[in-house]
Amino acid sequence: ARQLQLQPRGGKKKGPFKGARRVKRLGTGRLQPAEALAALGGASCKHCGHIPTAMQAWALLRAERRLQARVQQWEQQSPRGQLALEAVERLERQIERRFAQHITADRAYGHLVAVCLGLGCRRDAERLMERRVAFHGAAYPGASGAHAWTMEAYAQMILSNRGMKVGELVRRPRSVAAVRPLLNDVVAGEAAELVMPLFARALEILMLLFGRDHEYYTEVEQTASALQVALETVAPGAAATAAAALNAVRAAT
User: In which domain of life is the source organism classified (predicted)?
Assistant: First the structure.
């Protein structure tokens, strides 16, 4: 399923538009409004019940085609190093305006994350990763490996952006440099209140899908446990908060 954002005349935004069925391919020819309306199959907005007009359907599917073509191009040649932050922000606004919940939008955000990291715009990359986590949570509300691994990637990105090297964090003996960023109270707080819940939720899903003995689970658990030990070493106050999230997963049957 996917959702598209309607922008009717007058500027008043409608809710996310969710197609009743997957839109069929319309080929590479010129798309006509009547064809677009037929392709949407009379689907309505899941929030307000609005059914798009032929011109609205045409605009939605035309925007979808353009986004799909752009993402296909990026998958052939990464946009990293090719776009400025202003272009990333413009594309993000365009995607948000038209696509509330769409797999191609998620793929686009993945490429834009890489662009932001290449530009050194770490907070922007994190914002886009947060969008990806939200997308997977809504698209796959049950136990989804894609959702779990996106949360793991987001958690590791946050740690890396705060100066932590995850590889050194799990190494034994652990170097002082591996835990030094946690001496900053803000970083320690983010690790406890944001990163650890991401790891915990990912572990909960991976445990359901693969069990505690599978490497997909144990790899994430190793990182989460190493972070917990590091917090206990240098930031005991934050460690108590982090432990609550991690211990809930460990106690699950």
Answer: Eukaryota
